[in-house]
From TrEMBL:
Organism: Lysinibacillus pakistanensis
Tree of life domain: Bacteria
SMART domains: AAA
Key word Nucleotide-binding present: yes
Gene3D superfamilies in alphabetical order: P-loop containing nucleotide triphosphate hydrolases (3.40.50.300)
Alphabetical keyword list: ATP-binding, Nucleotide-binding, Transport
Single GO molecular function: ATP hydrolysis activity
ABC transporter domain residues: 3-235
Protein name per the record: ABC transporter ATP-binding protein
Pfam families associated with the record: ABC_tran
Length: 253
């Protein structure tokens, strides 16, 4: 099963935010969206998971027309971790993650042993097992982000959409979260702000500026010094990390 967005255009308050963008994510592939703040990454993702209705375009999950399918049906196969995860009402961490099982249940169906095991496994993956009975509202921003990821994992989706999933996280948990996501072996579409992490974890990158795709392909093939300087308007050097051999980027001020 693949995820495809075709010719997506979004206009908000008379401003063209996303301009005729098409992209494709294969099952098991980690695809990243990168670009400066305000380039349209989050708006594009929101149009894909039905928070914003695009003026033009289509989204397909396999053969399902996402934009014309029920949220419940799509939630069985697509998990989402957004940027802002504040709540007006309080729940325990366990209750928050258990909400990930909702798309798989009938109305008023009780949680069963399988659900409890899935939730426990999801909390363990994000190192929050000991937080199960804690109040969600008392958590730090980074802890809340990990709870929301655990909830998405508990959905057992075929695809995961992440809008800057490492926001609010210190470096240890940034690395842990991306490793966990990569290990799920499902399709992932993620907006990322850290270019070095994007090159490390993403199979394919789409580079966006002013609502348009400027380049797409394997990180090592498209992320040149010239492209980064053009998109981000900053001097940089692109090189191979002498320890890991991975691609690395240094910004020059």
């Amino acid at each position: 099963m693949n995820l495809s967005a075709e010719h997506i255009s979004v206009t908000l308050s008379g401003v063209d935010i996303v301009k005729d963008i098409s992209l494709h994510v294969e099952n098991g592939q980690f695809v990243g969206l990168i670009g400066p703040n305000g380039c349209g990454k989050s708006t594009l993702l929101k149009s894909i998971y039905k928070v914003i209705k695009p003026q033009k375009g289509f989204v397909f999950l396999g053969h399902k027309d996402v934009l014309n399918s029920s949220t419940r049906m799509i939630s069985k196969e697509m998990g989402v971790v957004g940027q802002f995860n504040e709540l007006s009402f309080d729940f325990t961490v366990h209750e928050m993650v258990m909400m990930g099982r909702t798309p798989h249940k009938h109305l008023m169906e009780s949680d069963n042993r399988k659900d409890y095991q899935i939730v426990a496994d999801a909390l363990n993956k994000v190192n929050l097992s000991e937080y199960a009975d804690r109040s969600y509202l008392t958590l730090s921003g980074g802890e809340k982000q990990r709870v929301i990821l655990a909830r998405a994992i508990a959905q057992q989706p075929q695809f995961l959409i992440l809008d800057e999933p490492t926001n609010h996280l210190d470096i240890k948990y940034q690395l842990q979260i991306l490793k966990v996501v990569k290990s799920l072996n499902i399709g992932v579409l993620a907006a990322l702000h850290d270019l070095t992490m994007a090159t490390t974890y993403c199979d394919i990158l789409y580079v966006i500026k002013q609502g348009q795709i400027m380049a797409s392909g394997k990180p090592e093939e498209i992320l040149t010094k010239e492209l980064i300087e053009m998109v981000y308007e900053i001097d940089c050097e692109v090189y191979s990390n002498p320890i890991t051999g991975d691609m690395a980027i240094t910004y020059i001020t």
